[in-house]
Amino acid sequence: MSVNGTVTARALGISRSRRTSRKGIRNGRLAMLYLSPALLVFLVFTIGPAIFVLYISFFNWNLLNPSLSHFVGGGNYTALVHSSDFWNSIVTSVYFVGATVGGSTVLGLGIALLLSRRGVVRRIVRLAVLTPYFTPLVATSIVWVWIFNPQFGLIDSLLRLLHLPEVGWLQSTTWAMPALIVYTLWHDLGFTVIIFLAGLATVSGELREAARVDGANYWHEVRDVVIPQLVNTTLFVVVITTIDSLQAFTQIYTMTGGGPLSATTTTGFLLYQQSFVFYKTGFGAAIAVVLFVVIALFTLLQLRLSRRAA
Amino acid sequence: MQRHRRFIAIVAVLAAVAAPLAASAATTSHRANVTISFMEAMSSGTQKPTLDDLTQNFESTHPGITINLIAEPNYGVLQQKEEAAIAAGDPPTIGQAYENWAAAYASAKAIIPLDGYVNSKKVGVPGTFKSHIWKGVWNDLFLPDGKIWMWPFNKSDYVLFYNANMLKAAGLSVPTTWAQYAAAEKKVTTGGSWGESLDTGTLSAPANGTLEYLSMVKAFGGTWIKNGKPTLDTKAAVQALQFLDDLKTHGALQVGTNYPEQTALGAGRSAFAVSSIAGYPYMLAAVGGKFNMQVAPLPAGPNGGEGNAMAGTNTVIFSKASAAQRAAAWEFMKYLSSPHATAYWAIKTGYLPVTKSALVYMKKYIATHPYQKIAAEALQYAGGNPPYAWWTQAEGYVAEAMQAVLDNGASPASALATAQQKAMAAASS
């Protein structure tokens, strides 16, 4: 019997693995079938156009009549390397990204810490912080153009009231970028606050209590217990806001048009300007490819750092 | 019902037209049905209903032709939509286009030249009609190859809006020269008021302030282009920019964005606003009856030179249209420029009649709106956008030069030298 039982069990085991394998293949095929509509959309509207952009970056591309385009090989990339406009846009992008990412992260965490406790007032403030994130970029950008208006705007009116010198804001090469950064932080802070609030909910309450019992004050508790446990959350926020900032366009288009004197022309805006205002589509495509590579590298970095942190 | 009555009124007016329209209708009455599309940006204020009226009237007098109007919210979107449609191989039959857009479309073979239609014995326009089109408007229809690629539609030019009450209080008369204008601006500049506000725009989107400056360059005896190349750093150009810089330094000129000239004048803070005559209804709305707003021609330059930048677009026929569609499109374009239609368009929208002959039908309107005649007569010498695709970039460099001087303390000569260098590179690429 035992021999029979063993043979039967072995036989059962072989049969079970074969059944599991067949089931796995069937499930895999079903999964592909269910995913195929989404994959098709992704292929047509994301992968396809991305490959096409790479293709036209090797041409002096005529947007209006592609048959008049001619192949230039790496000419657009060479022109990019020698373009002062491109390198200026890189510096401008670093400025914009650095300020918005740094600001979003620090302010987002700070506000989340303040709002993490319960209370009616905190719930109202949480709503007030989050609401701008859901407002349309164009409409709110236009409102902020008026807030920054030197003659009729709110900010300069307050400065005049306090007998302080007026600032040109969006007309000033010095202040146009800070004005854009202020708007971007106002609009996007809600997102990072929500992410940090979610992260704070996962922080071990016991560790925090233990720290308090050991005599740690609130600041030490945050620095030594809370922040280390928020590494993954912080990483996520930094990478996502970096990608968003690199792709920022609407507020630049509406508020400053890339000016004054290209002071707010980021690489993303330069791409639009070259491709759709000056008709240098091939050159613009080369900029798009470079931007894609930068964003892809950031994403890979995030994945690597996340795995290391885990 | 109201719309129907208005439509009947228009038909009654236009039914009084002499032979050309009736003859045109007679010759086309047996045409096979054809549908054409017109992509345009006449969608705000009175523009849309007026274009609808004109279109309906054309269709009623040209049986067999149906026109689909494709309205876009503004010129920026219009250009993007036209470009996208061309790139997709599905452009409309006709579209509004600025001169530099038309240059780009022509080089991409996306539009057709109109000489064959204009000069045709059967469907063309007679010599008298051509000679009655304002000289500046007529010159604006050509691209550098000497062919007619565009036909006039909604034209405007720049005028001087002013606060008559403020000038009277300061004991000033309406300036007729730029020198008088500067003196007037400085006189009205106190703690709470100033001469004018302007918006230079940016590299990607030059604004009214840049067109004001370019008008001044012409008045000062300068040019924008010569022999197909930009001339942004002439002596006159430097003088004109220095003129504006002096006013800024004095505090008489303020720089802003989002139509600051309209806001400042409307708020009663500035004495003057230089803007397109097509902006008259918007200026009037901003003023809201707070004071007496009047209109004067742009001042003259040092030697009496006249300079004005023509604004507004022409219409073009896209090359994908069939022969029947092209013929129908030409009939419609011709109709829009006919004296009665262009007079009706001007009266209703604030744009200008493209031909002198239209003024005869606007006598009653001009009696109560004399500024229309002032602005229309400036079309005789106004200059449109130079018809080169690179002008978009060159004009942007002019805006940047103005920003460098007015906002960032650069010298006009160096700023314009930089603009000229960049514009030459764009023209040569």
Key descriptive features of the protein:
heterodimer, A: 310 residues, mainly alpha, MetI-like fold, two-stranded antiparallel sheet, 13 helices, flat, disordered N terminus, B: 429 residues, alpha/beta, D-Maltodextrin-Binding Protein, domain 2, five-stranded mixed β-sheet, three-stranded antiparallel β-sheet, 12 strands, 13% strand, globular
What do you see in this structure?
The complex is a heterodimer of chains A (310) and B (429). With 310 residues, chain A is an all-alpha fold. Chain A has 2 domains: 55 residues; 226 residues, MetI-like (MetI-like fold). In chain A, 75% of the residues lie in helices and 1% in strands. Chain A contains 13 helices and 2 strands. In chain A, helix 3 runs antiparallel to helix 10, helix 7 packs antiparallel against helix 10 and helix 8 runs antiparallel to helix 9. The longest helix of chain A has 55 residues. Chain A is flat, with a radius of gyration of 27 Å. The two termini of chain A are 50 Å apart. The N terminus of chain A is likely disordered. With 429 residues, chain B is of the alpha/beta class. Chain B has 2 domains: 221 residues, D-Maltodextrin-Binding Protein, domain 2, CATH 3.40.190; 194 residues, Periplasmic binding protein-like II (D-Maltodextrin-Binding Protein, domain 2, 3-Layer(aba) Sandwich). Chain B is 48% helix and 13% strand. Chain B has 20 helices and 12 strands. A 5-stranded mixed beta sheet of chain B has the order 2-1-3-12-4, sandwiched between helices. In chain B, strands 10-5-11 form a 3-stranded antiparallel beta sheet. Chain B has a two-stranded parallel sheet with strand order 6-9. In chain B, a hairpin with a 2-residue loop joins strand 7 and strand 8. In chain B, helix 3 packs antiparallel against helix 16, helix 11 packs across helix 12 and helix 13 runs parallel beside helix 14. The longest helix of chain B has 17 residues. Chain B starts with a helix and ends with a helix. The chains are: A mainly alpha (310), B alpha/beta (429). At the A-B interface, helix 5 and helix 12 of A face helix 4, helix 13 and helix 19 of B.
